[in-house]
From TrEMBL:
HAMAP family linked: NADHX_dehydratase, NADHX_epimerase
Keyword Lipid metabolism: no
Catalytic activity: (6R)-NADPHX = (6S)-NADPHX; (6S)-NADPHX + ADP = AMP + phosphate + NADPH + H(+); (6S)-NADHX + ADP = AMP + phosphate + NADH + H(+); (6R)-NADHX = (6S)-NADHX
Annotated YjeF N-terminal domain residues: 10-215
Binding site for K(+): 59, 125, 162
Cofactor(s) named in the record: Mg(2+); K(+)
Residue sites binding AMP per the record: 412-416, 441
Enzyme Commission number(s) of this protein: 4.2.1.136, 5.1.99.6
Subunit structure and binding partners: Homotetramer.
Binding site for (6S)-NADPHX: 58-62, 129-135, 159, 260, 326, 377, 442
Family to which this protein belongs: In the C-terminal section; belongs to the NnrD/CARKD family.
Protein name: Bifunctional NAD(P)H-hydrate repair enzyme
GO biological process, one term: metabolite repair
Organism of derivation: Echinicola soli
Length: 503
């Protein structure tokens, strides 16, 4: 499991690793540069014109080493030195000395920056890394503004975009990368949505620092990757019957909003549930029966909204419940929800309007159990805990909420963050902007509910559900891009199993 750690911890970790392994800091920098170049070679052609912008610290040292290695491989490289000659770090200086004579390296004065004209396809930003400790000013700021404004170039940041603090929210300006190649462990601030325009796509490059070293710096934050979820999947025997794959109940829908619960139900079936049943207001029965023949449907008493009374007998036959999509927030839906949460004691995914209703009720603790999972997007979350100043505060409050209520909290978005009552947080690595479409959250509800119903423990159900939902979104958007809709994500769920190699 890959740790997400603070910038300060990275520095200490590097020092400890170097001391214990008996290698030099220069060697570690060389490893980092090599890892970057391995990735770079898979992305860019030798005829691309590559400009590498290097600062005076170790991030700049990385840039110089990258320039040397790419140049040796035949890339058309030019190096720009920013930040002057004062305070050059030892490894940066060594890498300046190691530059081949024929590799062009230009020291940029303030005047050069102001008047510079570029003829580049790829800009590599190695001006400042995790050592940044104040907002950009002077030459760094001017260079960043200039590079950000360049049309038709690919921008790649080394370790972290210049100007971005590794643990806090950005104040001022920063390099706007299309891709950030971060070394060994994602830095905390790379997870913040406020920084999306600066980080671009995140790639993690392994530079050989083993988990053993990371563990002592653990901040209980993890980056959820493929290898972490494959082993969490249950295997089913060839004698398995539909009961083994779980019976799930999807509860929600209202007049005019029946699609949400239909999508949750279909997603649960595509994730593998043996049987899916929907509980909806009576106006939804025909709609659901006609549009999804694989499900069963029953209804509560009133026509347009879920309401009291409803059939409670036999609810215990369901292994898991997903509740909330499309249910509305009327008084009758509220009475129904609170009653249902007190009645059904098995694992539940609580989403959408069910969260909005809970948010306006006091003492919600009584409705939540240890196997319950809340899946708010940012607005729904802030209805629960109040408006937050920034994403960092949101993440803190998400963890507090999970600990205080003993439930799992899935804060949806790019790098969806899953908080557990044991104090751990997992940040998802799958998914993309094309999943920002109506109904994508309902699909997630169906998927997590399905895993809970299949008998996955709550932790595995949530980690597998969130990861695989993002993966299905990636698969769906390969040939649909911004035309991807939620039902495309559902259709891609079976392929996500194929991709994971899970039966
Ligand atoms: N394991 C790894 O992750 C490895 C990372 N490496 C790379 O090293 C950098 C971090 O290098 P470091 O030298 O600590 O810091 P920077 O290069 O980011 O910054 C250098 C100095 O710049 C000064 N500074 C800070 N903020 C500003 C600013 N706004 N404007 C101008 N200058 C600024 C600061 O010094 P001061 O004395 O002026 O405060 C910084 O110290 C990491 O990101 C990786 O790229 C290694 O290669 C090894 C493996
Ligand atoms: K950088």
């Amino acid at each position: 499991m890959l740790e997400i750690i603070s910038g300060a911890a990275v520095k200490k970790l590097d020092t400890d690793f170097i001391a214990e392994k008996g290698i030099t800091s220069h060697r570690l920098m060389e490893n980092a540069a090599q890892a970057f170049c391995d990735w770079f070679e898979g992305e860019y052609h030798r005829n691309d014109k590559v400009g590498i912008f290097c600062g005076h610290g170790n991030n700049g040292g990385d840039g110089l080493a990258i320039g040397r290695l790419l140049w040796r491989k035949g890339y058309d490289v030019i190096i720009f030195l920013v930040g002057g000659d004062a305070k050059v770090s030892a490894d940066c200086r060594l890498n300046r000395e190691l530059l081949p004579d024929k590799l062009p390296a230009i020291s940029m004065s303030s005047d050069d920056i102001a008047h510079m004209e570029f003829d580049l396809n790829v800009v590599v930003d190695a001006m400042l890394g995790i050592g940044v400790n104040r907002p950009l000013a002077g030459d760094f700021l001017n260079m960043v503004i200039k590079l950000n404004a360049l049309p038709n170039v690919n921008r790649v940041a080394v370790d972290i975009p210049t100007g971005l603090p590794s643990d806090e929210c950005l104040e001022g300006e920063a390099f706007k990368a299309d891709v950030t190649v971060t070394f060994q462990y994602p830095k905390f601030s790379l997870m913040f949505p406020e920084h999306a325009a600066f980080v671009g796509i995140l790639h993690v490059a392994n530079i050989g620092i083993g988990n053993k070293f990371m563990r002592q710096f653990s901040q209980n934050r993890y980056y959820l990757q493929r290898k972490d979820v494959v082993s969490r999947h249950l295997n089913f025997s060839r004698f398995a019957h539909k009961g083994d794959f779980g019976r799930v109940l999807l509860v929600g829908g209202s007049y005019g909003s029946m699609g949400a619960i239909r999508m949750a139900a279909e997603a649960s079936l595509r994730t593998g549930s043996g049987l899916a049943t929907c509980l909806v207001p009576s106006c939804g029965v025909d709609i659901l029966q006609a549009s999804l023949p694989e499900i069963q449907v029953f209804s509560s008493s009133s026509e347009k909204y879920l309401s009291l009374p409803y059939v409670k007998e036999g609810l215990e036959r369901f292994d898991a419940v997903g509740i909330g999509p499309g249910m509305g927030t009327t008084a009758e839906a509220e009475d129904f929800l609170l009653d249902f949460l007190m009645t059904f004691k098995g694992p539940k995914v609580i989403d959408a309007d069910a969260i909005n209703i809970l948010a306006r009720n006091k003492g919600i603790q009584q409705y939540l159990g240890r196997e319950d999972v809340l899946t708010p997007h940012i607005k729904e979350f802030e209805r629960l805990v109040g408006i937050c100043e920034n994403h960092k505060q949101r993440l803190e409050k998400a963890l507090e909420f999970s600990k205080a209520h003993g439930c799992v909290l899935v804060l949806k978005g790019a790098h969806t963050c899953i908080s557990f009552p044991d104090g751990t947080q997992y940040f998802n690595s799958t998914g993309n902007k094309h999943m920002a479409t109506g109904g994508a959250g309902d699909v997630l509800t169906g998927m997590i509910t399905s895993f809970l119903g299949q008998g996955y423990g709550v932790k595995n159900a949530v980690l597998c559900g969130v990861y695989q939902h993002g993966l299905a979104g990636e698969i769906a958007s390969v040939d649909k891009k911004r035309g991807t809709i939620a039902t495309d994500i559902i259709k891609a769920i079976p392929k996500s199993y194929v991709t994971l190699g899970v039966d």
